[in-house]
Amino acid sequence: MARKTKSEALKTRQHLIDVAITLFAKKGVSTTTLADIADAAGMTRGAIYWHFDSKVSLFNEIWNLQSSFALEIRRKLKTQTHDNDLQLFREIIIETLKFISTDHRQRELLQILYHSCEFNGEMYSEREIRERIWFNRERMKKLLRNCISKGLIPVNTNIELMITIIHGYLSGIVKNWLMRPENLNLNEQAPEIADNLLVMLRKSA
């Protein structure tokens, strides 16, 4: 009986998280209350407070559970070795964009990250969330250094600046796609987006 009770509690907790993600994405984090989430989940307010003592703790828990994003992308990669880091980089971008465009939950999460949240207080910052779920600066730095050492991009590439440019390029595309998805077929055009970025990388100075 104890195991069943624990299992049910975990199921209830996950249900609340799922409902919160959808409401945060649609209504915004600041305008969504714990009472709104409880009502949408078909639960009492006491039930949600038993699992989360504040909206901030619920918000942060959402991102604590998203660490599988990078693992999901790695499983989709055709290039499993680092023989050609530039090709690996291209595949990472393509699979990431395809995953974002076809996975409803990832779309909701990115809607929260880029359009539905005013970050403050003890909430995870946008940078922390970004690093956690899809754009890790240290991993990108390592990959670009490997590209330089193998002569795949210019030796005088400013890595820190290039990472900022790459992030601006990709996040700008995702933000605009979220606002007007009819203007860009992110799934079909992912290779073209990646190839344009690679042209810039190969010519960087």
From TrEMBL:
Q: Where is the HTH tetR-type domain?
A: 10-70
Q: Which Gene3D superfamilies match?
A: Tetracycline Repressor, domain 2
Keyword annotations for this protein? DNA-binding, Repressor, Transcription, Transcription regulation
Whereabouts does the entry annotate DNA binding, in residue ranges? 33-52
**Tree of life domain:** Bacteria
Q: Does the keyword Glycoprotein apply?
A: no
A Pfam family that this protein carries is TetR_N
Coiled coil stretches, renumbered: none
Q: Which PANTHER family match?
A: ACREF/ENVCD OPERON REPRESSOR-RELATED, ACREF_ENVCD OPERON REPRESSOR-RELATED
Q: What is this protein called?
A: TetR family transcriptional regulator
Tell me what organism the protein belongs to: Buttiauxella ferragutiae ATCC 51602
